[in-house]
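# step 3/5: fold
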Amino acid sequence: MSENSRRLAEQIQSGGGALAGLASQRKQCILVVDDKLDTLLLMRELLISRGYNVATAQDAEEAMHSIREDKPDLVLLDVVMPGRSGYDLCRELKEDPQTRLIPIVMITGLSDRTDRIRGIEAGADDFLSKPLYPEELFARVKSLLKLKQFTDELENAEAVLFSLALGVEARDPYTGDHCARLATLASNLGRHLGLDYDSVLALKRGGYLHDIGKVTIPDEILKKGTQLSPQEWEIMKQHPVTGENICRPLRSFRRVLPIIRHHHEHWDGSGYPDALAGDDIPLLARVLQVVDVYDALTTARPYKPALGSEDAERTMRKESQHGKWDPDLVHDFFSMLRMRKAA
């Protein structure tokens, strides 16, 4: 890993400016959705006069096409439209992980409290009432675009961390696509266990980021393999804590942090860094741990051949009986693999 990458990791770990100002300085795009052409044109001209890029749509289908093409930073959405209503479109956008962070302002001539409650239930971020007043329009737009810019900065910071993690992986030529495999296996197991969307997403992120703390470990230790001296082993054992500190500035990684810190704990308390045992080890960390062990066993390394899935299962079940891994999760994992193979 280059010295620049190490410095970046240290900046992130200290909560420094490496996470700030990452959003690109492009013109922000607003999508206006209204079936009345005169209202559409008026809002378009007002927003263009303030320097925004503006896309327009007159119904839900056209709006969805525009969202896929233009990737707007904000949607101004009329409630009453032909076909699907603004409520329906808002709900659809907020339920889709790809679009749920786009702020939506619902525009309505309806002042009934019930209509506003319907908008809130659909996920609207704000409301504007007709007739529109330019000063109010500009104020609401400016406020929500600031929020969207902050969200974009967080997403870009996440991208930096993922790139850093893949850079760590690239230092070991024998791991191949280890992180991608773990992300897939862990999220699949999470879904098999019936975990909620945010937990499954955390497992996917954890698959990529679990070893990010190794960015600070020198190559002579990281690439040495299993023959580490006691002093070198103590350095290696710090990587989960370092990884947790690197990722802590991002609040969106709240569920990922226990995975990073605790994926080397053992069911019998013999692991590190905190010697947690049994159910004291966070569930998501145990899930990632099971798939990490499986991937290690089934991947060839210079000092060992790859095991087949059946041999890996026998090994992991035996080790779980001796206190290494959560026996229930080991059972669930291989049940999932058999189900997927039979499908």
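# step 4/5: annotate
Residues 29-151 form a domain with the Rossmann fold fold (CATH 3.40.50.2300).
# step 5/5: archive (pending)
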